[in-house]
Write a sequence for this structure.
């Protein structure tokens, strides 16, 4: 499939690289491709400059958010939650219309220090905000509940674990579930409509505390039943 | 140990019955013991009248919240979240002072319909409210993330799963962990101080959605790592 991955941070690179490796045609979307390619310093999260990563992943092309989305069948929101609505606005409502929009973002608010809080929760979710703002996109929330490496290589854990899909469009959820299975996920739980994204976004606080308690982000939730 | 279980609903009965079966001296706490024993109709949740349950569990005595707490080494808060601070007030700060207070409650708000929302979250938690209101109690949050039957019989699931403890008092967490192990839990994760209760209380929304998606509450989170 032709897939746009919006965001060139850890999650975006990990998803883009893996989708490309799996044979998909992947365009990474960024605000200003020339500026992204010109950077020579690690980003704020310590990621190597994008140009270095791009050299190791020549099949992944880089384009503006709008160009990336325009050419894609599936759009992945791999931006940080606080920027997601802005970035999707730059991608353009017309370029998102009718597309499957896999939303991986988390509504984390770091403004009050660590641990972050959530800027939307409980009675609403970031996924719902995105769906309301872009009513013609077919939003599916998934993969926001685990570390980037495990999103695309769940088999590195000692046993199978679970991921979730939330969305109003059954066919879009099937498309996303297919991609998750390509990544290696064997237990994809359909939670229901897009409002169920509240639940998975509210998993972040315990996820962050588990990271602290376990000393590693290499873990995932499994729903034993 | 001498244990008071405050609350005579599903969770209270399940915990009290199992602790008694394990050899502990258990007193169930209720607002008005005579009124509780006099009821002949099922309660709002469809539980059989308490007197019926009590007849099948003769070792569990019934007392007022205050009497139950006064005689206990460990106090279990098995009341519904909206009533917890009131009930613990009736139990009495003096009767809770120095005691291990295992808090199982969830801050569910049913006033806006289903699914319930949380009346405290993200920047605070019910467990923290309890700890602040009763600063001499040694509050440990645990067991609020799974069905009552599974709290005390986790071995009925096809594989091991995880439970969590949150609290400021390491010895109190060890006491609670010991009780959890008596129940059969083999993976008790210490998340850290009482503020980590925010994370486990915020698990409820996805727990409720999973119940809907799976059609059964007979599941639990396992942290695969």
């Amino acid at each position: 499939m032709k897939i746009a991955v919006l965001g060139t941070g850890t999650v975006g690179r990990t998803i883009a690289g893996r989708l490309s490796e799996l044979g998909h045609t992947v365009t990474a979307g960024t605000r200003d491709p020339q500026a992204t390619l010109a950077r020579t310093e690690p980003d704020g999260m310590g990621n190597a400059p994008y140009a270095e990563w791009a050299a190791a992943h020549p099949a992944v092309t880089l384009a503006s958010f709008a160009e990336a989305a325009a050419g894609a069948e599936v759009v992945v929101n791999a931006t940080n939650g606080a920027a997601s609505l802005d970035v999707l606005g730059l991608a353009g409502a017309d370029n998102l219309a009718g597309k499957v929009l896999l939303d991986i973002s988390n509504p984390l608010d770091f403004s009050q220090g660590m641990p972050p809080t959530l800027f939307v929760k409980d009675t609403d979710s970031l996924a719902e905000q995105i769906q309301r703002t872009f009513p013609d996109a077919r939003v599916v929330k998934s993969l926001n509940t685990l570390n980037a490496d495990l999103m695309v290589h769940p088999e590195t854990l000692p046993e199978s674990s679970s991921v979730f899909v939330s969305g109003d469009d059954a066919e879009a959820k099937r498309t996303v579930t297919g991609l998750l299975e390509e990544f290696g996920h064997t237990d994809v739980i359909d939670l229901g409509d897009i409002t169920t994204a509240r639940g998975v976004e509210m998993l972040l606080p315990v996820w962050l505390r588990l990271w602290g308690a376990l000393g590693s982000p290499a873990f995932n939730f499994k729903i034993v039943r």
Observations:
- The domain at 2-214 of chain B is CATH 3.40.50.720 (Rossmann fold).
- Residues 153 and 206 of chain B are 22 Å apart (CA to CA).
- Chain B has one domain: 2-214.
- The first strand of chain B starts at residue 2 and ends at 6.
